[in-house]
Write a structure and sequence with these properties.
flat, ATP-binding, alpha/beta, coiled coil, MutS, DNA mismatch repair protein, Chain A, domain 3, DNA_mismatch_repair_MutS_core, Rossmann fold, nucleotide-binding, DNA-binding, 6-stranded antiparallel β-sheet, 7-stranded mixed β-sheet
């Protein structure tokens, strides 16, 4: 039950209804939207919400459900009921198109059985009667016109008409050509007058051709004449047209008679289409306002998380602005929320949001809240919003408010949602405040639920020490003198009357007088509220700052993890490179030692020569060590570091590019990673040196990748000799380049031709030191091991 009668209008529900109305495809769906009302049965509300939620899911998932063509077939079904009446072609085609939509929708849900159970309930036990379509298809074509062969009689008549028209045309052409030859014809061609084909004849020649004059030109110089022979043929055609019309009517009567037994089923189809259109419109509106389905409770309580006023949401969307979400809860312990704060701070919007969303929910509409929100059901919604003064009823503003308060007190219950805007206004505050407090106390004893906005300090104090009532305020930035539109439950808010007056430039002497007249106690209360508001804002800002810091910390941890992983991977690469370099150094050292020993043997251990050779050996080994330890010299740039510059981490060879500079911190791009480094931990290098380092790293990376992907085994079985040798050449070049000590060639045994061909070919390579067969148990001479220097 809603009170007063304009409750829906004051809360904005009528505007919501109109927006849903615009999404309907048919007048039937629009009629259902107009009848939409607030209901109190939990099961019914739950069913309507779930149907809308399922249809919204279909639309968002772009399911192939085509609903575009249907008509009000109830009117047509009612017409069929009357004996002797018949449906014309257009009306039959409307039934046909509507039934095609019905059967298409039924087929859609049949293919998705149990996926949308609440929508399936709309057509439960509804049969698919395709005989109706077949009967209409036998008479009408795809465009809804009567088929020429709808009956044998119609087919004969149609054929006779076609033949007659052809004969008329042929006769008319012959007469027209003859008239042209005789120069009887005026400028122009054959034309139609009064439905008859006529020849334009010059007026002075009208007696030269027998026929009937149907019209003449404005000047009277041309007459439009139908030849006598053609006139007789046209009369026959007209008779055939009458016969055709009579036959069409007979067919339509017969078809309507055949459809008459299906009238109840047509009405069922009509009901299904109407409900479908209605649910579809609600789902489209839900998408427009970003609505979801909250948890539906049976108890009269609510917990809104990130709720948005739907009308405000749509209005702001056109202006590309966002709505500040509302978070509020009302339950058995916190029954009435008393909202205070400055004017234009969002108090009324807060209260109207709670009321409008409640009306929408209990009308079966999804609401713009987070899915975790909870909303219960109220038996009554009472609203006192706006000025209801009436000259006719001899009611002043305050009298109108008191009339509503009387009704609220008399009829409110624990299942009543009360919404009061600017409680207690309209009369002397000295008396209005106590009166409002008394009403609030009685309503609280009745355990009603509600949201009330006020500026009265006595109501704030009363709510502060009364169970069931809770103060709340709209946050206000008193440094910028702007509202934040955020509801904070737990503390009352100041009206900021003096601060706002001062901000808009009211004269200081006026403000001073006003403060003196207000009284010390009231000023102290208001100052206390202002201080509380400041503290709340500071806490709010601190929370936001803390949240930002936590996000930054998370990002830094993630960056560090990536950097750690990057370093681990580089560590493996460096170890591999070091091993390869060590192998090369050992090879070089071994060669040097072997050569030295060979020369000593040649000189037959001559002491002087041996000593000289040993010194040379030490020098060469020392040279290799110095060469290995030498690092590329990097010159550092002492100029100031800017975004885009390249830097090198001190005591490392790691280079990075500067992306951002935040005081002493630099955000660097290290390859694919991002890292924050202190300014004193890096030194600037030139772009040329950075480019060389990047190219070097790129080459090393490619070499490592090539080594990792290279397999020291080549299968040549089944290849022709020339192809096999080409493969061996390419493979051997790659193995030598990558520094592999040996490779394995699998050529098979066979007749030994491929084996001999390959081994002979390998002898030309100076890098090949020796060739060996595989162990007999693992392939024997079918596999050749090639050892490389």
């Amino acid at each position: 039950m809603l009170y007063p009668d304009n409750c829906q209008e004051r809360l904005g529900f009528n505007e919501v209804r109109q927006m849903v109305h615009q999404h309907c495809l048919s007048t039937m769906g629009q009629a259902l939207v107009s009848k939409m009302q607030v209901i109190t049965k939990h099961d019914q509300i739950n069913k309507f919400l779930r149907q809308t939620h399922e249809f919204k899911s279909i639309l968002e998932n772009q399911e192939p459900l085509q609903i575009s063509t249907f008509f009000d077939i109830k009117v047509l079904a009612d017409k069929i009921k009357v004996e002797g009446t018949y449906l014309v072609e257009e009306e039959l085609f409307q039934i046909y198109a509507s039934l095609q939509t019905v059967f298409s929708v039924l087929r859609f849900f049949e293919e998705r059985a149990t996926v949308y159970p609440n929508l399936e309930a709309l057509f439960e036990h509804l049969p698919i009667e395709k005989n109706i379509l077949k009967k209409i298809e036998s008479v009408l074509d795809a465009k809804g016109k009567m088929k020429p062969n709808a009956s044998s009689e119609l087919q004969d008549i149609t054929a006779a008409i076609a033949k007659g028209e052809q004969e008329v045309r042929k006769k008319m052409d012959a007469i027209y050509k003859n008239a042209i030859a005789q120069n009887w014809v005026a400028d122009g061609s054959l034309t139609v007058r009064d439905g008859r084909m006529c020849i334009p004849i010059l007026a002075e020649n009208k007696r030269k051709l027998k026929g009937f004059i149907h019209d003449e030109s404005a000047s009277g110089q041309t007459v439009y004449l139908e030849p006598e022979e053609v006139f007789t043929l046209n009369n026959k055609l007209r008779d055939l047209e009458f016969d055709r019309r009579r036959e069409i009517v007979r067919i339509l009567i017969a078809l309507t008679t055949e459809l008459r037994p299906y009238t109840p089923l047509l009405l069922s189809y009509h009901g299904f289409l109407t409900k479908l259109d209605f649910v579809r419109a609600k789902a489209l509106f839900a998408i427009d306002i970003q609505a979801t389905m909250p948890v539906l409770l049976k108890e009269p309580k609510t917990r809104l998380v990130n709720a948005r006023h739907p009308l405000l949401l749509l209005s702001f969307a056109t202006e590309k602005k966002t709505v500040v979400p509302l978070n509020i809860h009302i339950n058995e312990n916190l029954r009435i929320v008393l909202v205070s704060g400055p004017n234009a701070g969002g108090k009324s919007v807060c209260m109207k949001t709670v009321g409008l969303l409640q009306l929408m929910l209990q009308s079966g509409l999804l609401v713009p809240v987070d899915e975790g929100s909870e909303m219960g059901i109220f038996d009554q919604v009472f609203a006192d919003i706006g000025d209801d003064q009436s000259i006719e009823s001899d009611l002043s503003t305050y009298s109108a408010h008191l009339t509503k308060m009387r009704y609220f007190v008399a009829h409110a219950s624990p299942k009543t949602l009360v919404l009061i805007d600017e409680f207690g206004t309209g009369t002397d505050p000295q008396f209005g405040g106590p009166m409002a407090e008394a009403v609030l106390e009685v309503l609280n004893k009745k355990k009603v639920r509600g949201v009330i906005t006020t500026h009265y300090s006595n109501l704030k104090l009363f709510a502060g020490h009364t169970d069931g009532l809770e103060n709340a305020s709209m946050l206000f930035d008193n440094s910028k003198m702007k509202p934040l539109y955020v509801l904070d439950i737990g503390k009352p808010g100041s009206s900021y009357a003096f601060e706002i007056a001062q901000n808009i430039g009211l004269q200081p002497e006026v403000l001073q007088l006003a403060r003196e007249k207000t009284g010390a106690s009231q000023n102290s209360i208001d100052s206390l509220l202002v201080n509380l508001e400041k503290e709340k804002r500071q806490v709010h800002e601190a929370k936001v700052a803390l949240a930002n810091q936590q996000n930054k910390a998370k990002n830094l941890v993630a960056e560090n993890e990536k950097l750690k992983q990057f370093l681990e991977e580089n560590k493996k690469v460096l170890i591999k490179e070091a091993k390869l370099e060590a192998q090369n150094i050992i090879k070089e050292a071994n060669k040097l030692v072997e050569n030295t020993i060979a020369e000593i043997k040649e000189k037959k251990a001559d002491k002087v020569v041996t000593q000289q050779l040993r010194q040379n050996l030490k020098k060469n080994l020392a040279k290799n060590e110095v060469k290995e330890e030498r690092k590329p010299v990097v010159s550092f740039d002492d100029s100031a570091i800017e975004v885009g510059d390249w830097v090198q981490l001190i005591n490392t060879e790691t280079n990075g590019q500067v992306l951002e500079i935040n005081r002493d911190n630099l955000v660097l791009a290290l390859g694919d990673l991002r890292s924050v480094v202190k300014r004193n931990k890096v030194q600037k290098i030139s772009n040329r040196q950075a480019k060389k380092a990047v190219q070097s790293n790129s080459y090393a990376g490619r070499m490592n990748e090539a080594i990792t992907n290279f397999k020291p085994e080549l299968d040549l079985r089944g290849m022709r000799g020339e192809t096999a040798l080409q493969e061996v050449e390419n493979y051997l070049d790659k193995a030598i380049m990558l520094g592999f000590p040996s490779i394995k060639l699998i050529h098979g045994k066979g007749d030994g031709i491929l084996r001999k061909l390959i081994r002979d070919y390998l002898k030309k390579y100076t890098e090949v030191t020796r060739l060996e067969d595989e162990h007999a148990d693992r392939g024997g001479d079918g596999i050749t091991y090639v050892y490389l220097s």
